[in-house]
What we know:
With 418 residues, this protein is mainly beta. It has one domain: TolB, C-terminal domain (Neuraminidase). It is 8% helix and 37% strand. A hairpin with a 5-residue loop joins strand 4 and strand 5. The model is unreliable at 10-57 and 398-418 (pLDDT under 50).
Amino acid sequence: MRMLLLICAFSAIFYSVICRPSSEYGWSYGGQPSFPYGGQPSFPYGGQPSFPHFSTPALTQWRETVVEESGHSEVAFFRGNQLFFIDTYQQKLCSFHTTDRKTYCAHIGQGVLSFAAPVKSHPKIFVVGCGSNILLIKWDSSKDATSVRHYTLTSAHQPPQDPLPRGSRVGYGTVDYKERLWFVTTNDNLNYHAANWGTVYCMDQNAGIEKKISLLPSVTGGFVWDVPRGKPKKRRSPPHKFYYADTLNHDIIDYNHWLQNGEIERTGVVHSLPKHQVPGDPGRIAIDSNGYLWVPLIGSHRVIQYDPFQEKVLQTILIPAAKVGACIFGGSLLYVSTIGYGENKYRPPGDEGGYIYAIHNLGVTGLLTREYHLHKDIIFRASASLEEISYKRSGRKPKAALGKGSSSDMDLNRSLAD
């Protein structure tokens, strides 16, 4: 009994002196709360504790310049602390590193560069739209490259059965929730802008393409998908919302898209800019995790946040450039790219066309970047082709045989000879 009393007395002294909590609610500064018996503290009126020294002031939106004049720039995607963007007419894919604020570029040189997207499981491989073709390229985005090798996956121009109209080329492209690549064609010839030559294609993991939407205006914008927000009906999953920016008609078009069977149907105009007295032409739009659209407006110095559910503009962000062409999310930051003027075009005073900005403290987050899932056999054929090109250029023996029975482990991330 005496021994038991001694142990109890020692335990009481140890707790009161050494383990005494350093705050009213039982946790030290920077630590985590500890409540007896797994309970929770009780605060009046169901509120939370107030710590005056740690109060957070209201956050103010602010704009940061991340890339200075870069020609006809379009933000493409964000991945791994890198903002990827294209310079359309210089035919360069570039990467801005947010950690050290350095920018590296790869010159592709295969025609007007319209989009870029990452390829799943291959961090150095990108799928890009150049002219009328869809290409694979390999590039280490931590280095500059004056040229990169490429492999042609397919072309939107397929004569004689399905040729592209004169002046048409690949426009915007991105990846859906089934990891397929979607892209749209656009036309640069002013004489054909009144024609409805725009077409949206879907490209599967085997690089097969299928027309999804036809007879769009010849100048096309961007598009995004939202996550399903309804409940299944009659054993059918609710569709994803597909929003398309109709640049020439100043509208955002709403489609229902069922991923499993690929069906897509137009439901109507979800946002008419003239109806809401919003000036400008919609460009390459973005979407946040709440399903709200972020619409860059060419010719209007601004980006608007738009609620497609209530069909109203929620806020306007002014940009110091007239031609605001594209925006994407990188976590909680909205990256906005603007279009430059070129050497021989008049630039209005103070216009920062060609700059790229990061908008902070919006209070929203974007959706994660989706990667194009390309079948490993396509990757193998592309790698084998580039090995052959490398051999012809350098005179070195290819690193793997190209005939049947070759290992399918070979991919574009290998160190290929220059």
